[in-house]
Amino acid sequence: MLDIQSLQIHYGGIAAVKGINLSIARGEQVALIGANGAGKSSTLNAIAGLLKPHAGQISYNNQDITTLAAHRRVTLGMALVPEGRGIFPRLTVAENLAMGAYCRNDTQVIAQDIQKTFAQFPRLAERRLQLAGTLSGGEQQLLAIARALLSKPQLLLLDEPSMGLAPLMIQTIFEAIKTVAQSGVTLLLVEQNARLALETCSRAYVMESGQIVLADTAQVLLDHPRVRQAYLGEMGEPT
Fold it and tell me: What pTM, to 2 d.p., does this model score?
């Protein structure tokens, strides 16, 4: 579904992403883990069309989308849940969800999908008429995920969904993410909580200083000495 070749992203003279290759098959759940500043979010934003690559190619469903505008990528079936959530604080929960379906014109089905979303996320249903800016951080994250799903994505890009949340809310968020994956949506998850990411996804890439340094199944990476020491807080000599 997604194929990235030799992707480079620069900020002025600084290379944030240094020629990475990454691919995701339809129906996969893939994590991209690494420390702050590794280039994970830059990679995700380039895939979503929010950043213009310095070099390289991004293909989606065998179509070159490297220079395609971000809103056009949404119509192709790609949705981003951005770092920081990006909800519309002065709109209600229901209005935020409706904004997620802006590229659709099946009005009756949209209304049905919003009701299904409220059934799936009862906490949002209770707050449907509440301004989104007054929600807790965890509720805003649920709303950001739900809003992205209203665009009917084939590929969902998640950028740091656990950031700044309490442990119980993180559990709720990741239960929702697993439910989305079980529905058949392909996932690319950027997450600093490496253990949680590897327990959620079937495969993962490890990114350091703008480069992919490891790529394997999640289980292999959970057991890898380098990952255990650097990202899982376990002692031992890296290999």
Answer: 0.92
